[in-house]
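Lab manual, section 2.4: Encoding a predicted structure.

Procedure: take the sequence of the chain (647 residues), apply the prediction step described in section 2.3, and record the output as structure tokens. A sample record is shown.
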Amino acid sequence: SSGINAEYGGLKVVTVGGDDKVTVGGQTYLFKSFSPNVTTSQIYKSLLEKSLTQALTKGQNIGVVCVGESKSGKSSSLENSPGLISLAAKTIFSLVADKPHFVGVTFLNVHCEKLVDLVIPEDRELKIKMHPTVGLFVEGLTELSVKSDGELVRIFEQSTKLRKILELEMSIPVSESHTIFSVSCEHRVSPDAPLTTSTVQFFNIADLNLRKSEAVSNSLKCFEALPTELQGSSIPGFGGSKLTQLCKKVMDKTADLLIIGHLSPISTSTETLDHLKKWSSVSVTAKPNTLDPEELVWVLRDRVAAARKVILNQKLGEVPKEHIAELDNGLSALKAAKQLHWEERERASEAASAVRRQTLADRGILEWVLERVGDSKGQLLTIERDLRVAEYKEQRSAVEWLKGELQASIANHTTLVEQPNQSEQVLQESLAKIHKLRDRLKIGNEKLKELKTSVRDIQDKLKAAKTVGEVEQQEIASSFTLTFILHQEEVGQLKKDNATFLEEERERLLSEAEQEIAEIRLSATQGSSLTVEQVFEVQERHAQQASQLSSTALHVQCLQAENEKLSQVIAALTSAHKTETETQKFRNLLVFRQYKDYHEDMRREMAMRYEQLVASCVQDAIFLSSKNAELTAENTELKKKLRHFTM
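Recorded output:
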């Protein structure tokens, strides 16, 4: 997305546009603008990278707030690849990678004054609480520990997909809700150095034009009032809505703040620009965070011990209530401070990850379902492979540098030899430098080969470790889609490995050719020349290599064509299989419906027969009952007559 930048009182204000003047609905706003073809990476480097680096280095908080109309590009600015969040993640881990650190993430959705945890979306109530020592926090909110920028981005992307699923499950419209993605970064320059703590928060605010909607009306009104309240000398209370309460950490004038506005090209509303204009009068002074959990624990322990000592010195039944309350508060604060320790947060994150893994798999997020197939051994091998690949790339860069230095030294030596009055000492020093570079290049090439062999060995182990376990295989065996995606990933990885191998082989051949050329030039400068047989041998070898290279290129082209054709055939077969499966499902459903209709007809017929039988039985019973009454009366009459005749 594009943007416009202006600085007022130390606060950056950004919105979409094309020139220094932005005109909407006949009103003109003066902002320094980015043209529409400017990428998110360029905007990030221009506006956020320096501020973020400074905040992380000094231990300050920083907030990034995206405001604007629906479908104006707010979510794209954050979610794009690369987006603001992925770019910020790279900056964060580039600064703390070589230091003791902890990075944790949380993701909140705010809708109708209800908080939903997007990391693990369970039906539980999340409460905002304010602790006098720890500060503002959300009770019950899940924090996940992340080890790399890729893992951070993956969690954000998966939680974003969850948010869209929740729109259907829990009737939470994406356009009428706010999101807050928070990154907590803590690090020490050295193990004994003071703790540096920073919080980076990304806000995606709902459309300001939706203030009439019951879902977001209160939160939007309170949010719109924030810049006016912040213009005063006092700090606002941030009450009124849960959104503004959650803004307190980065909008209390002690944190750096970046407001990003977005406009649709066909927009006629000035709501966004009018809101940004309010922020232009707000000044902020970023201050470092001073909370150190370890020091805080010791301070609170001393406070609790002192409170206990005071209570123990009192007589039983005469302990003042304020002393008991002080002890309770101290114990509560001590418990909260202990939960801020990295070890405690890592344990909580590990427990939450298992729950989250099942939650995402149950909701059909395929990337996570497929990740369940892998095991810890495969993950360790992947990490080791990535480290070896990085080391290989670094060593290859060093070898390339040595090649350049060697060629430059040979060219310089050739120039010196051609000079008529050049001293022998200078020539010897130049020649010694060439030999030294050549020895270093030889050692570098050997190390490069060793690293390449190591990477291949790890890849072979990784392929073996990726064998799906029996339980996991049973879980996905019934799903053709998951199985197909799994095999697609394997084929894609194989293609990447083959492409890397071909590129490395090409570079090796070029390196050997350049080495040979350098050797020939060096020999020429030392006065030696090639014989006719050696020239013919070199030309013959080069002709053979050219022929082999041409043949290999044709072979690769044929393989690529075959691969493309096979991919098309597999895609066609997959489509046909899916069609056949759907057809079979339809047929089964049709048969089932026919059987169900037949069963219903039989059930109705049997019910009618039963009803008729019951009715017939009832009629027979009534008839027999009446007949029995008649017979009983007749029998009584006969008995009377019999007595009369007897008398």
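Check your result against the sample. DSSP finds 16 helices and 14 strands in the chain.
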